[in-house]
Amino acid sequence: MNTEEAKPGAKEKLKIGMYWAASCGGCDISLLEIGPRLLELIEAADIVFWPCAADFKYRDVANYPDRYMDICFFNGGVRSSEQEEIARLIRLKSKTLVAYGACACDGGIPSLANTKTVEGIFNASYHDNPSLDNPDHVEPQQSTQCKFGELENPRLYPQVLRLADIVEVDYRIPGCPPVADRVWEAILALIGGGLPTRNNAVKVACTDKSVCDECSYEKRQVRIKAFKRPQEAIPEAGWCLLEQGFICMGPATRSGCGALCTKAHLPCRGCYGPCNGVEDQGAAMIGALGSILGADTEEQAREMIDRIVDPVGTFYRFTMASSDLKGRK
Amino acid sequence: MAEPHIAQEEASAPGESWEPRIIAFLCYWCSYTGADNAGTSRLKYPPNIDIIRVMCSGRIDPELVTTAFAQGADGVMVCGCHIGDCHYISGNHKTMARMPLLKRTLIEFGIEPERFVHEWVSAAEGEKFARLVREVTENVRRLGPLNWPQRMRERGVDHGMDLKPWGESV
Amino acid sequence: MTETPGTHTESGNEKGTIPRIGVFICHCGGNISDAVDVGRVAEETGTLPGVIFSTTHHFVCSDPGQSLIEQKIRKLGLDRVIVAACSPSLHQLTFRRTVARAGLNPYLFEHVNLREQVSWVSENNELSTQKAIRLVRAAVGRVRHLVPLDKRRIPIHPAALVIGGGVAGLVSARDFAQRGMRVTLVEKRPFLGGQAAQRHTLFPTGEDARGMMHTLIDEVVSHPLVTLLTNATILDSEGVVGNFHTRIRIEPRGTNEHLSNSNDAIAACPEQTANEFDYGLSQRKAIYMPYPGCYPPIPAIDWHLCTKCEKCVWAANGKGIDLNEEPREIDLHSGGIVLATGCDPYEPLYGEYGYGVSPGVIRLQQLIRLLDPEGPTGGELPGNGKIPLRIAFIHCVGARQIEGVNQRQPDGRVKDYCARTCCTATLHAAVEIKRRYPGAVIVDFYQDIRTYGRGHEAYYEQASEAGILFVRYDPYHPPGVVRNPAGDSPLLVKSRDMLTEGIEVEMPADMVVLATGMVPHDIAELVFMYRCAIGADGFLLEVHPKLRPVELAVAGMFLAGTCQGPMDITESCSAASAAASKAAALIAQGQVEMDPFIARVDETRCTGCRTCMTVCPYDAISRDETRGIAVVSEARCTGCGTCAAACPSNAIQQDGFNDAEVMAELKGLLEK
Which residue ranges of chain A lie beneath pLDDT 70? Predict the structure, then answer.
């Protein structure tokens, strides 16, 4: 990586790539969110691998020399043999590998599937579902014969994994998706030099604080009287949503997003993952939430807690793969 | 579609040598002293419980409990002073609200409610403590080993899936 | 996978190298070694990384045992020490001192409990030995993360504050002053004396209550080191042990020492209200003195009643009364506080044994006022002249109540505790009545007779000898008090007599005296302000009933008298002296030492989300507005760790119990 030039547009263009694994495609789109700055990026770097945006073949990547790509962004979790293979391939072919987005960093929403079995997933997807019309119970097969010979589907793993569970990762950019301004700052830092190539998976494009730091609502330091779901009430303007009873993951979520959701009067869902120094975001939130419940007796506490519809989905929405327990037994 | 490693419900059948491993977090002023009281009274209870002392049950972070299970505990107990008797006034009020929320979440992870027990034990309740330990040990024994690390390994968390070496699939 | 060298890595030792751990496993003279193979534990422990010395000893707490530890620290350069022995509650302090003597920071020491929690409860020695091995291994993991800590030392302001001017508060104040310490005594009402001044003669000596109080009050108010504030309430309190800052509001008295003819002024006042000194049995004016010889010896004005008609001013010739006196506020700095806020007699619920329905049903405390020659009836019992006077006493009113049998109090509970003093007080009064009215018929309806104190049993004997009858009632079927249908007396008391197998007895009575228990005086605001612990019975809760009976869990605060629980004047005086003694000892130390297990904020990670501020029971965490982060007051923090568990960004850690230390212990236990 060219560390002497601070500006994009240096002598030799960098080579960058982005891959999507168990992903919704939102991260790829989010890269485009940098808007006109994309032109600056293209001036400084050639995109040599981006299956979402252009027609690249795995063979092309395999034929690159090792460490050919200066930076490769990898979004999505790893839950199939194909995704694992490509993750390992990309690691070989990149100087700097960046886990991009909540899925690659912490598992993301797909990793909530870790509370299910593959059997269960197949059942819900192909058989037992009110919106399905599959009278012959067709489901995908591992392999099939066709005129080209035997074709194999990638094997589905029982567990959604983070990129760092498979290969060594240099940087992580959290967010679902990461916010454009932060991404651009990270890109500038990475391509402009000044950051080490290898950095032990440190999270960048975020701050060291929680979302509360970027949220401007007033904290009154009161305990929660009752939980409310966002559709049940209109929040009082200017007052901390969590204190009002909407379960806002803000205190347990790393900031950098600019508190976009709370600004729109919706409670934070935790997509930037756990705060710096926290491993299990859900446990951190449970600890904080339980601490500020306005319950004086155990019965009151239980009544309030029973109103939470889906604890796992609420507290581990984006970070199941990073949690201590990682999934359902 | 064949699956490589199906997570079995009985991940490892309890061998004859399996003994439940239960971690107990006790607050120093009431429940730890209550456990001492059981000892001073020479009451007997199963040795399956390992005690970690903290100053107040309010110190017990849910992450301590999730880590305990993730590292292989078959059961976890959290004990504190009775409500109203907390040496630090209201530390146990926080425990009182955190633990049910945690328990609810753990159940969704598939950890049976009998494995995670939250009780108030005062400094004088040695008998209650001994009885509680016996009860929890028996319940956990009946449920069998939880052995979370093994289960997760079988789900492929600790990665080591068999793969064709790179190059052959393309 | 961690991205920051935060709390989950080893902190190393003082010298920056791998810790040198010494482990000492105690036989405890067989108490441990009979069940646990301590030799094996020492051997296994010796193989762990970092452990350079691992041994057993018969009694580690003994002199030779402690010397061994000191020796090994010096010779082998140990910088972490583990003792696996009895419960830390016994000898953790001992061993911290041992280690300190050898030059090692006392908080680089870990105490493992192998006795109360392993050997003494062992059902299976092999499994218990394995458990011991695990516990010591966990400690080895934990000590790697310990860092040197220092006890906190805070200078103590050399003055005391006593809240409450009854007998307990007065005794405490006197003791402080006699000890040579400045003390401020704050009394909410305009006059000193409390409940004790409302008595007539005291058991067991028979001495005059107000005479005794007068002596005591004199000792207190004449001492130069005592500052007395009456009509004074606590508005606000800040600070911690050694440095309490209390804001006090002093209501105007309305009178001063220039008032020479108080009686004329009082007589001139047209307003009246129920006299609380006589428990409502008489009236007093808006300008009043509770009794002759009260202190301060000048009247006070009840501003709720006073209409500022100024008739008293006229009667006093314009001197000594200022109806426009203003309240004032002062700040008090004290090193220690004694709470002596006292009690009130239980007020029966309307209809309870006929109370409030019939004027013939009164409380014991009211009876004592009636018997007092300085009381509302000059010492004559109503109905006197009617021979014989028939009086029923009912014990355990508002005390020893049973759920489902007695009516619940407004707080939804029953008063199930014994009020302790009423049996003796009842018999004392009953004997006095018999002495004055030998023809009186007195029947005592009781559950048990608890004349427990020194010289108290004599009243029981005297009562029996004087012909007082005793009917033992069934607490599940307490006596009933009704209007007497026969009309030959106002009231009829019905009860089962358990001494004669439940025979129903009926007693026609002119007066029914309820031996009412005591309830703590309402100090809800003080309790909240000072964060005091309250027992299930509503009284203030001491740290430990035997080892620390007059101390509150809040450092620097002490209890004296009936605010802590039912007790008589003798016991109140003892408790008050004990409280003063403890508080004075604390203050005399000059500085206070506190355990260093306080919370610590990582300023780079704290967001200022205020979760910790909401959870701290001691308001020890505040917000630095400029930096937007939490700040822990080292002096106020008591080391509970609740904030550390609550923090959703792990930005607060508790020294001595931080995540690294506790996790290391946990992982050490579960290692295969």
Answer: 1-11, 194
The pLDDT, as a whole number, for residue C386 is 62
Average pLDDT over residues C395-423: 93
Tens of pLDDT, residues B134-147: 999 999 999 999 99
Q: Which residues contact A51 (CB under 8 A, 6 or more apart)?
A: A19, A20
Reply yes or no: is the peptide bond before residue C296 cis, omega within 30 of 0.
yes
Best to test chain A binding among B64, B66, B153 (most A CBs inside 10 Å): B66
Q: State the pLDDT confidence band at C385, using cuts at 50, 70 and 90.
A: low
At B11 the pLDDT is 40
Q: Which residues of B touch A293 (CB under 8 A)?
A: 97
| Interface contact A223, partner C, CB < 8 A | yes
Sheet holding A171-173, edge to edge: A45-49, A14-20, A69-75, A94-100, A171-173, A202-203
Looking at A14-28, B156-170, C465-479, which range is the least confident one?
B156-170
Partners of C273 in the β-ladder: C284
Amino acid sitting at position C435? R
Contacts for C58-61 with beta carbons within 8 Å, 24 or more apart? C58/C26, C58/C27, C58/C28, C58/C29, C59/C26, C59/C27, C59/C28, C59/C29, C60/C24, C60/C25, C60/C26, C60/C85, C60/C95, C61/C26, C61/C85, C61/C86, C61/C90, C61/C91, C61/C94, C61/C95
ipTM, 2 decimals? 0.89
What sign does the dihedral C279-C283-C284-C285 (CA atoms) show? positive
The answer to whether residues C169 and C560 touch, using CB atoms and an 8 Å cutoff, is yes
Query: C666 and B64 in contact by Cβ < 8 A?
Result: yes
User: Could you tell me which residues come within 8 angstroms of residue C324 by beta carbon, excluding any fewer than 6 positions away?
Assistant: none
CA pair distance C411, A152, nearest whole angstrom: 73
In C, minimum Cα distance to A172 occurs at: C3
Interface of A with B in 28-87 (CB under 8 A): 58-59, 62, 81-82, 84-85
**Whether C553 and B39 lie within 8 Å, measured CB to CB:** no
A-chain residue closest to B70, CA distance: A325
Residue A284 in contact with partner chain C when CB distance is under 8 A: yes
> Which residue type does A160 have?
V
Q: Residue C648 and residue A252: Cβ atoms within 8 Å?
A: yes
Q: Which of C350, C283, C270 is nearest to C309 (CA)?
A: C270
Q: Which two tokens stand for residue C119?
A: 């050997």
- Give the separation between CA A90 and CA A75, rounded to whole angstroms: 12
Residue of A nearest to C629 (CA): A213
Provide the chain A residues 245-284 that lie in CB contact (below 8 A) with chain B.
279-280, 282-284
Judged by CB atoms closer than 8 Å, whether chains meet at C645 and B61 is answered as yes
Least Cα separation, residue C105 to chain A (angstroms): 28
Looking at residues C118-139, what average pLDDT do you find?
96
Contacts of A252 in chain C (CB under 8 A): 648-649
What mean pLDDT is predicted for residues B59-66?
Answer: 96
Over range C76-94, report the average pLDDT: 94
pLDDT tens for C496-538 read 999 999 899 999 999 999 999 999 999 988 987 887 878 878 8
Q: What is the pLDDT of residue B85?
A: 75
Dist. CA A275–CA C6, nearest whole Å: 12
Residue with tokens 């993730």: B70
Give the residue from C213, C218, C307, C292 showing the smallest Cα distance to C254. Answer: C307
Q: Tell me the C-alpha distance between A174 and A254, whole Å.
A: 9
